[in-house]
Design a protein that fits this description.
The chain is of the alpha/beta class. It is built from twelve helices and 21 strands. The chain folds into two domains: 131 residues, no CATH class; 286 residues, Aldolase class I (TIM Barrel, Alpha-Beta Barrel), CATH 3.20.20. Helices cover 31% and strands 22% of the residues. An eight-stranded parallel β-sheet has the order 20-19-18-17-13-11-10-21. A five-stranded antiparallel β-sheet has the order 3-2-5-6-9. Strand 5 and strand 6 form a beta hairpin. It comes from uncultured Nocardioidaceae bacterium. Its EC number is 3.2.1.22. This is GH36. One of its GO terms (biological process) is carbohydrate catabolic process.
């Protein structure tokens, strides 16, 4: 096993359990039995885009990025091992040897214990880490309509305007109207607007005239390998960031002066348009392995890039991280996606299940400590078979209330649930311990079902 031994804990092999945090928003996070084996990617691209690039997954035992908890079972105090600062996020591993769980780590960790169980240990660590890095308590989040799960990359300004008018007609309490991916060819092609989309400035003016805030999707830390930027500035690129939009992706070197100047320019132009809510996606691109202009680790470079974003847009722009390395983001975003996408194109009927339920429930301890938890958008139209279960999860374990439907396609049930979700408003406060425990149980159950499905296949 890799790493150095940091602890050996006597455990009950039948009731002991382990919490393993993942690298970024889309990584698995859940509770395992002490003899469990970590969920692993099925392909190289999944490792790059959903796990920690450059860090292999151990074939046995439980592996965590930055935070691991051992709850021995039998009433003994739970022990938490977590990163002590923002400079590094160590990888941790467990190995069951007889009735002892050996914990290894490739860096330095802060070790604490709690007599109130594993969930209390996570909450205590979250409070400690937030204080350690000087992160202020999150403010009240807005309520959001998002274009993604209805229109995907085919969104146009006409689609958004139709829903803006429908939101008014139904008097839905929406604070932010957010345009997701599809409005632009991407940062690698400048800040141009896709021709079929229509006028972004005119749309922003319409949204603001309705008394709401305008929101926009942006993937600032990576580009496609065939984009103009990638061809003209190969020295601005770091390394492989997976594949999307029909091409290979590459991470940007956010330590390079040229990249930093471009990012600041683009972000200031967006804010000058009147946009005050940004969904920052695919943020892991700044941390992928590779040589950089400055001699920084991927973690350090990512933190530097996200700090630049916060400085460029100012304190009044609401930032939502997504696909983001978690611990290095603390203190720089207002809300954080704590799950993968609810579904991808083709899964609109709910046939792919609730992909995000496990990490949403498991990461309940981060709510109100690091940020406001974004469980991803509620989808409430009748054609989505999982809408009831997802609505319950979004209300129970989410802090940022959002939905992503064409309002005209909502039935009576959908409109009522959306109205209830938005009417309660966002929640910036930490969840009570009992909810963390319920979430841990739900996450463990979802993990067991995934393991059974994997073994059956």
């Amino acid at each position: 096993m890799p790493g150095k031994v940091v602890d050996e804990v006597r455990v009950d092999p039948t009731t002991g359990r382990v919490y393993a945090e993942g690298w970024q928003s889309w990584s698995p996070a859940t509770w395992y039995p002490v003899d469990g084996t970590s969920l692993a990617p099925g392909s190289d691209w999944q490792h790059t885009m959903r796990y920690r690039p450059g860090t292999p997954i151990a074939p046995t035992g439980v592996q965590a990025e930055g935070v691991l908890v051992v709850d021995p079972g039998g009433g003994e105090p739970a022990r938490c091992y977590g990163a002590g600062d923002l400079g590094s996020v160590p990888t941790l591993w467990t190995e069951l040897v007889g009735d002892h769980l050996v914990v290894r780590c490739n860096g330095e960790v802060q070790s604490t214990s709690s007599a109130d169980g594993g969930e209390a240990a996570l909450a205590a660590y979250g409070d400690w880490f937030a204080r350690r890095v000087g992160s202020a308590a999150p403010g009240a989040p807005p309520t959001v309509w998002c274009s993604w799960y209805r229109y995907f990359e085919e969104v146009t300004s006409a689609h958004v305007l139709e829903n803006l008018r429908a939101i008014d007609a139904h008097d839905l309490p929406v604070d932010v109207v957010q345009v997701d991916d599809g409005w632009s060819p991407g940062l690698g092609e400048g800040l141009g607007v896709a021709e079929r989309f229509g006028s972004l400035p005119a749309l922003v003016d319409e949204i603001r005239s309705s008394g709401r805030r305008a929101g926009l999707w942006l993937a600032p830390f990576l580009v496609g390998s065939r984009t103009t930027l990638a061809r003209e500035h190969p020295d601005w690129l770091v390394g492989d960031a997976g594949r999307n939009w029909g091409q290979q992706l590459v991470g940007l070197d956010v330590t390079h002066p040229g990249v930093r100047e471009l990012l600041a320019h683009v972000l200031r132009r967006i804010v000058d348009l009147g946009i005050s809510y940004l969904k920052l996606d695919f943020l892991y691109g700044a941390a992928v392995p590779g040589a950089r202009h400055e001699d920084l680790t991927g973690t350090e470079a990512y933190r530097s890039g996200l700090s630049l974003v916060r400085e460029a847009v100012g304190p009044d722009v609401y930032l939502v991280g997504c696909g983001a390395p978690l611990l290095p983001s603390v203190g720089l975003v207002d809300a954080m996606r704590v799950s993968p996408d609810t579904f991808h194109a083709g899964g609109e009927d709910g046939s792919t299940g609730l992909r995000g339920l496990m990490p949403v429930a498991a990461r309940a301890w981060q709510q109100g400590r690091f940020w406001v938890n974004d469980p991803d958008c509620l989808v409430a139209r009748p054609s989505y078979s999982e809408r009831g279960r997802w609505a319950e999860a979004a209300v129970t374990y989410g802090g940022l209330p959002s939905f992503s439907d064409r309002v005209a396609e909502l039935d009576e049930w959908g409109l009522r649930v959306v109205r209830d979700l938005l009417g309660e408003g966002g929640d910036p406060s930490p969840f009570p311990l009992e909810r963390l425990r319920a979430g841990a149980g739900l996450a463990a159950s979802e993990r067991a079902q995934r393991a059974q499905a994997r073994d059956a296949s």
